[in-house]
Design goal:
By secondary structure, the chain is an alpha/beta fold. The protein is 38% helix and 25% strand. It contains nine helices and ten strands. A six-stranded mixed β-sheet has the order 6-7-8-3-9-10, sandwiched between helices. Strand 1 and strand 2 form a beta hairpin.
Length: 237
């Protein structure tokens, strides 16, 4: 579903992503790990078509993101670590706007909106302005807007920042349910325990280079460690 070939991103003389090669299958949850400044967010933005690579190419569901960004973006959903919402819309209005942009049937959209507002315990705030929402509540609305679209690829950059424990649990369950529909999830996270539990494979990027990639068990075996956290620290010394 995602194919990254010889990907390079430079900012003047600084190389943020250095010759990255990676594939992510349909129905896979891929964890993309690395310390701050390693190149995770830059990579995600290039997959999303927000930022263009210096070299290399990204293919999403058979579509080259750089050459045909409009068609590629129809298949991609992206949630950054800082949720963007329109502060003068209510949660329900914002979700209806998303539904209209992506041409979701209004009847189906209204059903999905109520379902996700309920799951994230936002029904009592559904008609309040988003400008009054906390960071975590805005993140819930963003996640709801993504899931109701049924995209082929979901890109998350620190998706659980600001979420309470119950919402994190709901988030993990919903992500797993999406993969059963064939959706690919590409997730940057610092919560290594969560990555260890729900990701089929993880990749560790350090100073722009992929230093390890594979099933969690394989990565633990390479460094002879019992936890992903300990292995990660070894790879990024």
């Amino acid at each position: 579903m995602i194919e990254i070939k010889n990907l390079v991103k430079k900012f003047d003389s600084f190389t943020a992503v250095n010759n990255l090669n990676l594939t992510v299958d349909s129905g896979e949850i891929f964890g993309f790990l690395g310390p701050n400044g390693a190149g995770k967010t830059t990579t995600v933005k290039m997959i999303a078509g927000i930022m263009f690579p210096t070299l290399g190419e990204i293919i999403v569901d058979g579509i080259n993101v750089s050459k045909n960004p409009y068609e590629a973006k129809k298949k991609i959903a992206y949630i950054p670590d800082e949720p963007f919402v329109y502060p003068n819309l209510t949660a329900r209005e914002f979700l209806r706007l998303i539904a209209d942009i992506y041409e979701i049937d209004r009847k189906q959209a209204d059903k999905s909106i109520e379902e996700y507002l309920s799951k994230f315990e936002l029904l009592d705030r559904a008609d309040k302005l988003l400008g009054s929402f906390s960071h975590g509540m805005k993140q819930k609305v963003m996640v709801a807007g993504v899931l109701m679209r049924n995209p082929k690829v979901i890109l998350f950059d620190e998706p659980t920042v600001g979420l309470d424990p119950k919402s994190v649990k709901n988030f993990k369950e919903m992500i797993v349910s999406q993969t059963k529909k064939g959706v690919s999830v590409f997730m940057c996270t610092h919560i290594l325990e969560m990555a260890e539990k729900i990701c089929g494979r993880v990749g560790i990027i350090y100073e722009g280079k992929m230093v390890s990639c594979g099933p969690v068990e394989e990565i633990l075996r390479v460094k002879n460690k019992n936890s992903l956290e300990d292995a990660f620290l070894e790879f990024t010394k």
